Amino acid sequence: xxxxxxxxxxxxxxxxxxxxxxxxxxxxxxxxxxxxxxxxxxxxxxxxxxxxxxxxxxxxxxxxxxxxxxxxxxxxxxxxx
Length: 81
Known about the structure:
This protein is mostly helical. The chain contains 4 helices and no strands.
């Protein structure tokens, strides 16, 4: 989990640092309806909209791993292992 968290922080930080026009205008310029056409996003992975989608997917997968890891640790702690 910590490796994922560090990787997510580095990827997100690199993405935010590379925004030439500034982070806030880039985020405000994202069209939420663009995610309804994933094929168009896959055609241009360099766009901020696609990159925010990738960050979202990484975040969701990481949270899922965290929840599963926490449940597994809780189970084995109850077993006395």
